[in-house]
Fold this protein.
Amino acid sequence: MGEMAGGGLLSRLDGPARSVWAKHDRDGGGWLPLWRHMEDSAAVAGLLWDRWLPSGVRALIAGALPGGEGDARVLAVWLAGVHDIGKATPAFACQVDELAEVMREHGLQMRSCQAMGPDRRLAPHGLAGQVLLGEWLEQRHSWPAARTGQFTVAVGGHHGVPPDHGQIKACWEHEELLRSPGPSGRLWRAVQSELLDACAIRFGVEGRLAEWAAVRLPQPVQVLLTAIVIVSDWIASNPDLFPYFPDESARSDDERLAAAWRGLDLPEPWRSVEPAGVAQDVFAARFDLPAGVVLRPIQAAAIDLARQMTAPGLMVIEAPMGEGKTEAALAVAEIFAARSGAGGVFFALPTMATGNAMFPRLLKWLKRLPGVQDARHSVYLAHSKAALNEDFRDLMARGGQVAAVDVDGDAAVGWGQSDRHRRGDAELIAHAWLRGRKKAMLSSFVAGTIDQLLFAGLKSRHLALRHLAVAGKVVVIDEAHAYDTYMSVYLDRVLAWLGAYRVPVIVLSATLPADRRRTLVEAYAGRPESAEEPAAESQTAGYPLLTAVVPGGVAQVCEPESSGRGATVSVERFPDDVDVLADRLADELVGGGCVLVVRNTVRRVLETARGLRARLRDTDVTVAHSCFVDTDRAGKDRELLRLFGPPGPKTNRPAGRHIVVASQVAEQSLDVDFDLLVSDLCPVDLLLQRMGRLHRHQRGTGQDERPGRLRTARCLLTGADWGAQHADVPVPVRGSVAVYGRYALLRSAAVLLPHLEDAAVRPVRLPSDISPLVQGAYGQEPVGPTSWAEPLEAARLEFDRHRKDQAERAGVFRLGDVGRAGRPLFGWVAAGVGDADDSRGGSAQVRDSRDSLEVVVVQRRRDGSLTTLPWLERDRDGRQRGNLPLPQDQTPASFAARTAASCGLRLPLQFSYAQTMDQAVKELEQLYLPAWQGKNSPWLAGQLILPLDEDCQTRLAGFVLRYSPSDGLEVTRDGV
């Protein structure tokens, strides 16, 4: 640990410099002098460096400086110490009259805040500090002006937005905001220099500045230093940790810091140790493999490749569904973390539902990790409804609160002694300080939506914190094939920055188009100089496939053997007629069996379910789609796993016939197994995902535990008018075209044509046909009969226009590429979106989706009272959740409010059009309950409430809404 020079700042300052203030409590009258906040911030930065920052982050900063890690620590401490030097200016100091008057008494004259007028906003203290520090480096240490910005931008950007050149120029042009005109100006300048001189000595940089003048800091290092300053400032600005004067003025520096750090109680980063032994042993230790189970070849090959790489980098794992890609990724992450110094893992998933499903798997893995079992580590579920997840809520309960602790006292202000004993020394917690949209990703282990990663490519306030969060982790990106052009624009830019940070990245997919694979590799590693030659990662047709590359390197490709697990799926054209489908399924299911019908829109799900129930028994048909309230949606997933999950004691598979009609929710992350598949035409990679739910598990020898008619895997492909002849161009239904586009659907149909023409002779063989089908559908070569050429070309032109439009719109707020070393981050997030968050509106910033309305669904009884929905099951502690009263004239009880909040519902597309949305909001706001707003009701404050009558219906913006726990939300036009 580096040491500060003795004596403290106070001993190096005269009266005027001591009078400068930094913090003021308007309610209690307390305050902090600037020198005290400088000491606090620098000391916190030192502790963060020594005890909290992952070693990989420290190494990256150290590599940019001539003195290595010693220089890096001193630099971080110094920048944190001087970050508020801009408060030693008239523009800032005039804001509190009584404190400004004390400074005037010491000769630091200034006009009143009112007299300065709106010009004062031209010199916010971060920008003013950047200007003053740059001036000091030039004048006192003879730095070239072109070298100062790369260091001083950490000061200018410590409130989340690095200044741009226009703001810097405007500040210089109003020097009266930095120093008062006249004789007092000389004293202002002297005080500013005195403070900076004292900091240089106190924080150990005085002897290093001459050598640093020749340094060119890479932009990633500038970002990390800025983030360290921000975190240090936020901690040092917390009055619960660092109390204000006069109450705290008697403590020594060491006592003050020790009490604060103990009260903060930040868990240290994960320090991975590379696992020894063969891959089989590693998996057995981490994933509790049953005796006799042998690794899949893709899993063993992934570990071997990770060990062979010259350094951690990007690894793309492509393998069929059910091959254990998630476990392979976690095993590789452990190796990458040990070699890179990463202090955690971020697992990025497509949706909140898949994030929720992954979270307990992540926790289970962590509990078996060496180095995690014996220490406290922070864990987070990163999406907008994480607080409703019961696993995560348990972790939050252990997270404590943040307040200073007297190191010599018997009692703690924040953690009581009983809390200390109860939490123990080794556990996973959702730490109280590491919460909220800007700090949560700083936790060591995070599972969350892909949006959280894409936000790192969005020009937004406090972006540096998001970069620090991912720079210290191994990043795993699941379901990489699921992201469209709009999202990929952000993903590719984020990968470029991750490569610059040397962050290990693991990408998982059933399979990727060759061009997309190459783009991911080049985004991360940079385009090779010999780019005119075909790249290995785009030429191979192997499958399963591993692709690996280190930053700046050339990709290497590995083609593991197939596991031998496979399926042969006969694919058959089927008319888009629900009555015909009902008749067919009635015949197919004479001997029982389980069928999955996947539709591309919720509307088609409900129409199909109605048609099937008219022909079969209602109890034979269930539905699953995205238009359920959150708690019902989670219950649907649990029910699907209970009925159709892997063979075992937790599964209660229906003995007779059963049909599940689902939307795309059935494609991802659910380990369910059906006897027969019916699917709308969709992009071929997604169809293969759907086929992965067909005969997923072995049920008896030769599948002889399945009904006799269903022992051969079959897929009925519908959702299109196939025409009278096999060579006719299919016409997909309108809803599918709206979701996927005509071009993707036609190319998918074209590559499937040989399998459709004679299903018995040429079935789809999994996994061997996966790569050829995907490469064919997404490649540039002509596909299909010659009679399809003209419709395909028209669809391609439409697709190209749409893709170009997506890329242009995404580029508006996309972060720039990594700049050259030494170029300051001035204007880094200029013209950005402000704050980024994980709400529906925030996610729309990185997804090509319309704004949507989200409501909390409750029930209104005939007497006008409100309750939670009546059918809700008890929670896992046995507490009743249905029919809980929600008083309108007072704040509901916390449990009732949380239960109501768990019934959030995203209204469908009809409510995303501006006129309809405005009308809906206007009607919803008529139920405004003041008692439900504000800090006393965190679960319901700011929410739009949708009350259903006792028949579970309501009207909204010209539509009739009907809801049932079995079928979810159905929307029809009023009067239809």
In short: The longest strand covers residues 567-573.
